[in-house]
Design goal:
CATH topology of the largest domain in chain B: Glutaredoxin
Strand content of chain B: 5-15%
CATH architecture of the largest domain in chain A: 3-Layer(aba) Sandwich
Number of domains of chain A: 3
CATH class of the largest domain in chain A: Alpha Beta
CATH superfamily of the largest domain in chain A: Fe-only Hydrogenase (Larger Subunit), Chain L, domain 3
Bound molecules: iron/sulfur cluster, FE2/S2 (inorganic) cluster
Shape of chain B: elongated
Largest sheet of chain A: 5 strands, mixed
Structural class of chain A: alpha/beta
Radius of gyration of chain B: 18 Å
CATH class of the largest domain in chain B: Alpha Beta
Helix content of chain B: 40-55%
CATH architecture of the largest domain in chain B: 3-Layer(aba) Sandwich
Number of strands of chain A: 20
Oligomer: heterodimer
Number of strands of chain B: 4
Number of helices of chain B: 7
Radius of gyration of chain A: 25 Å
Largest sheet of chain B: 4 strands, mixed
Strand order of the largest sheet of chain A: 2-1-5-3-4
Shape of chain A: globular
Number of helices of chain A: 19
Order of helices and strands of chain B: HHHHEHHEEEH
Helix content of chain A: 25-40%
Distance between the termini of chain B: 30 Å
Number of domains of chain B: 2
Structural class of chain B: alpha+beta
CATH topology of the largest domain in chain A: Fe-only Hydrogenase (Larger Subunit), Chain L, domain 3
Chain lengths: 591, 161
């Protein structure tokens, strides 16, 4: 890459020639206030005019997020007029913004509020007509509040370019412009997969997860046995909410906090991830033996399930029938665990702490219940857990390291913890499928070709003389490529892992926000590297485990011996497998 | 609402017409508007399936340009200009009068399906403001008192046809 010399405040810097002024400035140590733009100019409109700077030779101030650098360019961020105009831009945005910051859940992580503070904006300098408050709370996973939207278009880009879906768009024109699903419908009445990727990029409180904290409070009040479980990816990111560096393992503190929040038991969803593997690997082996046409598709990501149901229902027979791990965990807690301890299962409230917002929706699917009792009652995101901890007054840095409860379903393996990253399910499944087919163990245990962050990864494994072709993908844009090849009859894989969010659950829609604005001490490129840093927490955890193969988990072995009888048994099917909907209407009539 | 088979075919044919265009959306939408009369969500879904352009993006274009319409247009489309020149000469009053007599708001179609009322920005007839156009025919210097007569004229015309 060629370098050019640019001047900020008359000081020369050498920068890559393919950057915008805004990006170059950041690399040189200047954070120009900006709102609508997102990492690497992933921004559709350049509309906010908050990033104005003076460029020598230009008559007017320029939007630095959309202005490429060139050799000899002289930029003045601190030019008096630029300072004033940036402030005015923010004040204009505030003029029609519904400012109820005190009660807004985004407060503390709101880019608009932070930028307004930095530029010294006066909230009511310009009296504009406020955007009316219309709040969509119909969808179980995400909510939308139009009065907080600043029309930056980031969510549109995220949904269209990363997920390849395009649920959101600009509508109408002029002062009536809104960003919303088609015809201002609810997320519930359009084919939105509820992955929550859009909530990760929204600078304000316009798009957020649908909070279930009130439900949890009610369960405690009713005196239920409130049992909590946490997904692998949560521990890889929770600490970020309390100022820990990205890539810090929060397992011990997280468990300590959950104990102090009053949960009856604190379990690791990893136990059920091991169970998912034994069930899914044996399902795969069964398909191989019965020569069912491939590939088999994994089923642990509810955003992905929504995607295939909405867009490729004809391929549903390829989908594994396994419930996702936290659903399996709920089903086992309310059957095996409850029976062993003589607890009335209707008195149990299972709470899942998840990196995912789609799991909120998933828990309400009728097929994710046993005998009319829902497997999971409450799903909270990593961000909501952080809020609970903050609310409780606990000081994160003073929390000790504690261990998950070891009570019938407490043992976990290294295979399970890597579920949280793209490729992890496949790697874990291969370890166990190898064992089922050969009665031997796969060596070496690490399976490198399915690691890393390419959109689609391919690998093959030879088991007992036969070669199996595998693929791993994350993000629906990549899944689409594989599904299209299946439809065209050109797909050559036997087993495909699909995760709804790009990079897997470590980058789930319910994970902490990552934004340079709020991370002054992280590396400049943190928005490029955070997924890897979180993933490395999980790979390290796998390495440190003594048992790294799901089928060797002692509590899993006991569960089958005592209760489920065998992999894929009748009882296992009743508790651990689910069904799918061939006929999901994309645009149901609005109620 | 489920579209009739023939309707689906019309839309698919239009999409096929422009399949080699680099940016076919405007062309498809304006042909659809012309041949189908309006562009409801169901039609947008077909266009989306044929072109791969998300429905939300299509909807955005349809709602951005006033010559596309989400609901069926009336037999006669009355465009009242409220651009600067016409506004100054009372264009808004003309618009209100039409609305009052036809009992519809701008963007709506009268119950008998005869009239659609649109508010337009400058139709290039500033010299003869306030101006309106009905199915392309421009009426100069429209006085409020003339409006009932204009409506009656088209009602009569519709009966004759
Ligand atoms: S989105 Fe930000 S600025 Fe708006 S009300 Fe919430 S905290 Fe305040
Ligand atoms: S939740 Fe996912 S599918 Fe739905 S609008 Fe947001 S990014 Fe798109
Ligand atoms: S909803 Fe959020 S991300 Fe989307 S345009 Fe509005 S402010 Fe931007
Ligand atoms: S950040 Fe540059 S125009 Fe919004
Ligand atoms: S403003 Fe009405 S024709 Fe120009």
């Amino acid at each position: 890459m060629a370098k050019v010399t640019v001047y900020f405040e008359n000081i020369p810097y050498s920068v890559d020639d393919n950057l915008t002024i805004l990006e170059a400035a950041r690399a040189c140590g200047y954070n120009i206030p900006s709102l609508c733009t997102f990492k690497n100019g992933e921004c559709s409109v350049a509309s906010c005019r908050v990033c104005l700077v003076k460029v020598e030779g230009e008559r007017r101030l320029v939007a630095s997020c959309a202005y490429p650098v060139r050799d000899g360019l002289k930029v003045f961020i601190n030019d008096p007029q630029a300072v004033i105009d940036r402030r005015t831009s923010v004040e204009l945005i505030l003029s029609n913004h519904h400012q109820d910051c005190q009660t807004c859940r985004k407060n503390g992580q709101c880019e608009l509020l932070e930028v307004a503070r930095r530029v010294g904006a006066q909230p009511d300098k310009y009296k504009g007509e406020k955007t009316p408050v219309t709040i969509d709370t119909l969808a179980p996973s995400i909510i939308r509040d139009t009065s907080k939207c600043i029309l930056c278009g980031r969510c549109i880009e995220r949904c269209k370019n990363i997920q390849g879906i395009g649920i959101l768009g600009f509508e109408n024109r002029g002062f009536k412009t809104i960003v919303s699903p088609v015809a201002n419908r609810s997320f519930n009445n359009v084919p939105c997969i509820q992955c929550g990727q859009c909530t990760l990029v929204c600078p304000t409180g316009a798009l957020m997860e649908h909070s279930e904290i009130a439900k949890l409070d009610a369960a405690f009040k009713e005196g239920k046995y409130v049992i909590v479980q946490t997904a692998p990816a949560v521990r890889a990111a929770l600490g970020e909410e309390f100022g820990d560096a990205i890539g810090t393992d929060s397992t011990g503190k997280m468990v300590a906090a959950l104990h102090r929040l009053g949960f009856y038991r604190v379990f690791d969803t990893n136990f059920a991830a091991d169970l998912t593997i034994t069930e899914e690997a044996s399902e795969f082996v069964h398909r191989v033996v019965s020569r069912t046409p491939g590939p088999m598709l994994t089923s642990c990501s509810p955003g992905w399930i929504n995607y295939i149901e909405y867009y490729y229902p004809e391929l549903l027979p390829h989908l594994s029938s396994c419930k996702s791990p936290h659903e399996m965990m709920g089903a086992i807690i309310k059957s095996y665990y409850a029976e062993k301890h003589g607890i009335d299962k209707t008195k149990i409230c299972v709470v899942s702490i998840m990196p995912c917002v789609a799991k909120k929706y998933e828990k309400d699917r009728p097929a994710n219940s046993v005998d009319g009792i829902q497997d999971v009652d409450v799903v909270l995101t990593t961000r909501e857990l952080a809020q609970l901890i903050k609310r409780s007054g606990m000081m994160w840095k003073k929390l000790p390291e504690e261990r998950f409860d070891d009570d019938l379903i407490g043992a976990t393996t290294g295979a399970a913890v890597i579920f949280g990253v793209t490729g992890g399910v496949m790697e874990a499944a291969v370890r166990t499928a190898y064992h089922i087919l050969t009665n031997k163990e796969l060596e070496p245990i690490e399976f490198a070709p399915v690691r890393g962050f390419k959109g689609i990864k391919e690998a093959s494994v030879v088991i007992d003389g036969s070669e199996y072709r595998l693929a791993v993908c994350s993000g629906m844009k990549n899944a689409k490529v594989i599904l299209d090849s299946m439809k065209a009859g050109t797909c050559k894989y036997d087993f495909v892992e699909v995760m709804g969010c790009p990079g897997g659950c470590v980058n789930g829609g319910g994970q902490p926000y990552v934004n340079n604005l709020f991370k002054p001490n992280e590396d400049d490129d943190i928005m490029e590297t955070y997924i890897q840093k979180r993933a490395s927490v999980l790979y390290k955890a796998d390495q440190n485990k003594v048992i790294r193969r799901s089928h060797l988990n002692p509590d899993i072995i006991q569960l089958y011996n005592d209760y489920l009888e065998a992999y894929g048994s009748h009882k296992a099917h009743k508790l651990l497998h689910t069904t799918y909907n061939q006929n999901r209407e994309k645009y149901p009539d609005e109620k | 609402m489920v579209l009739r088979k023939e309707a689906v075919k019309i839309i698919k044919d239009i999409c096929a017409r422009y399949k080699d265009e680099p940016s076919p959306l405007m062309l498809i939408l304006s042909d659809t508007q012309k041949e189908y009369g309006y562009i409801p969500l169901e039609v947008q879904e077909i266009i989306s399936a044929e072109t791969g352009i998300p429905v939300a993006e299509i909807y955005g274009v349809v709602t951005f340009y006033s010559f596309f319409s989400l609901t069926p247009k009336g037999k006669y489309v009355i465009g009242v200009c409220v651009g600067t020149a016409c506004y100054v000469k009372g264009g808004q009053n003309v618009l209100d009068k039409f609305g009052e007599l036809l009992k519809i708001k701008p963007g709506q179609t009268s119950e008998d399906g005869l009239f659609t009322l649109d508010a337009l920005r400058c139709i290039g007839a500033c010299g003869i403001a306030p101006a309106i156009s009905i199915n392309g025919k421009v009426y100069p210097k429209v006085a409020l008192s003339a409006i009932p007569g204009i409506i009656a004229e088209y009602r009569k015309k519709a009966l004759e046809e």
